[in-house]
């Protein structure tokens, strides 16, 4: 049986304007990575996030798939 390795997971861009950093993390690790960064470096404030352009594209794809954009 073949299992997907972590390197097979899509990598999502994470940006932090306060730290002026950008990184890419595997999709399954996004929430934990963003939360850990914000807790450790920004007292829990939501500073680091998924790149807003990518987040908008994902939201549009999900809305389209769910038929939310149909009239």
TrEMBL record:
Pfam families: DUF8149
InterPro entries: DUF8149
Domain DUF8149: 5-71
Protein name as catalogued: DUF8149 domain-containing protein
Source organism of the structure: Natronorubrum halalkaliphilum
């Amino acid at each position: 049986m073949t299992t997907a390795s972590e390197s097979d997971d899509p990598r999502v861009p994470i940006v932090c304007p306060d730290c002026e950093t950008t990184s890419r993390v595997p999709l399954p690790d996004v929430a934990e990575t963003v939360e850990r960064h914000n807790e450790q470096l920004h007292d829990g404030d939501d500073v680091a996030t998924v790149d807003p352009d990518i987040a908008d594209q994902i939201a549009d794809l999900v809305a389209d798939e769910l038929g939310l954009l149909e009239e």
